[in-house]
Amino acid sequence: MAALTSVGEAPLAAPAKRPRGMQAGRRRRLNAFRYVVFTLFGLFFLLPLLALLRFSLEGSTLGTWSIAAWKQIASYQGPPPLLSAVEITLELAVLTSVVTLVLLVPTMIWIRLRVQWVSRAFEFLCLLPLTIPAIVLVVGLAPIYNRIRHYELSALMLFWAYVILALPYAYRALAAGLNAIDVKTLSEAARSLGARWFTVMFRVIAPNMWQAILNALLLSAALALGEFTIAYTLLYTNLQVEMYSISRNTPNASVLFSTSLAALVFAFVLLMVISYAGRRRRRGMR
Amino acid sequence: MAVTAQTGARPVRAGRRLRLPAWLGTTPFLAYAGIFLLLPTGIVVVDAFRTPSGALNLGSLKALFKSTDRGFFINSFELCLISSALGAVLGAVLAYAIASGNPDGAVRRLYIAVSGVLAQFGGVTLAFAFVVTIGPVGLLFHASWFYSFPWGIAVIYTYFQVPLMVLVFLPAIDGLKVQWREASENLGSSPWQYWRYVGGPLLWPAFAGACLLLFANALSAFATIVAWENQIAYVAPQQIYLAINSEVGLSNVNQADVLALGMIIMVAIIMTGYALLQRRAARWLR
């Protein structure tokens, strides 16, 4: 918009007086519109978060302040104890992101290098979980999880399903990384120097896309941290399910708000790391 | 790939080693996706056409059109329509405000980063945040319509629909070339005429496509509505949960399958429309 020239508006009225190119009145009106919009949306996005913060700092009587709720995160006994749900969820996040990467990185590099003809089908398969709602997937997963429960009861088994949910996000992050490097030339160079396929993958190509791998890792972890539908429907307890059951038993437990906010801030930090790290890399390349 | 294949087929190695087809490298991934993605989807589709005892039963599909099940889909449709319309219009306004500013400005960077985070922010926490903002104990005020069906939850959904709209629609607005506006102004058009005859027609396929994406997004949302209201099942996902985990008597798994199939059909229609509109939108905006 700033590059707009004013030729059509008033060719005889000395365009040099308007360096911004747009009629001053219109630019002013546009700016006013923008600031009103930014303020309103900023409030809309901020207020619910501020309300969460306020309620997490609520004292024993309404209107007082206290940090008791934040201390309670460590001591809330449930049932089940809050801390065990936090632990399970963190373990799930690690497990999900590692399995996703182990599954995707070698496969994607291999497809780039040797079996290009399956790449469209592979992309379709990876993006499919975006379109199938989790609540639909869980209907079909229930019989499979009945089988899994014969062998292992732990909520950690949720990672099997979470990897599927993480596929689209991890795939897109990794595909962006692979597109940014010249996979073919790198592999041909390595191969002609005598490298084996294993070396090409893990010592030549993977180090060149660490940024994308980090993104995929954080995205999968963030997904596992916030997952509710599958855990709740299959009757496992993770952090989100735990918070939900606290809210049902004692709706105004202020530990609810401190935990929510802590989980939220943690997820925000993870996702902000992605956008920050991405930007720094791009700047470095210039 | 021909070059790579040649280097791989050096005579020394070819003679010594058993040569497996290259696509075998994708089998771990295929096996995983087969068991945890394709199999569950297949189970849903097949079981929807069977009675609980296993016999073929086309009648179960008719249940989709019976008053009880149809009601859930009508409610889902209503909720998705309202929340995606709200999200699309508000998100488009915000996207325009962002696009008309400095392309490297801090405001733009902040809003894009925040949108990326908030578009993923659903779940039970979002419902809690709104309960303490405009709910019964609201910090701002107590909205009497907070627990009334489509509007209360639709406003909550707007919180993640608007950022998603910004992410999807901003590239389309950025794709409007300054030259097009200059050209139409040179020909003497008013701003209204520009939007009516140039900008609008160019943007509408992208806008309609984004609406469909928002619609599908609202359709599959589950955690937020469960945390918002856990006594009454309004929409199809809630009823699927109840059908799987009914606390009274036998769980009605067949109803879950039928409802899930109904959702798959809805999503398939929406995503087909989305793909067609995307192709249409890509004609001018690239």
What does this structure look like?
The complex is a heterodimer of chains A (286) and B (286). Chain A has helices spanning 24-56, 68-75, 82-113, 119-131, 134-151, 159-180, 183-192, 197-208, 210-226, 229-233, 239-249, 254-285. Chain A has 286 residues and is mainly α. Chain A has two domains: 15-56; 76-285, MetI-like fold (Orthogonal Bundle), CATH 1.10.3720. The longest helix of chain A has 33 residues, at 24-56. The longest helix of chain B has 33 residues, at 67-99.
Cα(first) to Cα(last) distance of chain B is 29 Å
If classified by CATH, what would the architecture of the largest domain in chain A be?
Answer: Orthogonal Bundle
Poorly predicted tracts of residues of chain A: 1-20
The domain tally of chain A reads 2
CATH architecture of the largest domain in chain B: Orthogonal Bundle
Indicate the radius of gyration of chain B in whole angstroms.
Answer: 25 Å
The overall strand count of chain B is 0
What's the CATH H-level superfamily name of the largest domain in chain B? MetI-like
Portion in helices of chain B:
over 70%
Shape verdict of chain A: globular
The name CATH uses for the topology of the largest domain in chain A is MetI-like fold
Classified in CATH, the superfamily of the largest domain in chain A is MetI-like
User: Beta fraction of the residues of chain B?
Assistant: under 5%
- Oligomeric state of the chains in view: heterodimer
Provide mean pLDDT of chain A, rounded. Answer: 82
What is the C-level CATH assignment of the largest domain in chain A? Answer: Mainly Alpha
Radius of gyration of chain A: 26 Å
Count of strand segments of chain A:
0
Secondary structure topology:
The complex is a heterodimer of chains A (286) and B (286).
Chain A: H1 24-56, H2 68-75, H3 82-113, H4 119-131, H5 134-151, H6 159-180, H7 183-192, H8 197-208, H9 210-226, H10 229-233, H11 239-249, H12 254-285
Chain B: H1 2-8, H2 11-16, H3 27-48, H4 59-62, H5 67-99, H6 106-118, H7 123-134, H8 149-174, H9 178-186, H10 191-220, H11 223-228, H12 236-244, H13 253-281
Helix pairs in contact in B: 3-13, 5-8, 5-10, 6-8, 8-10, 9-10, 10-13, 12-13
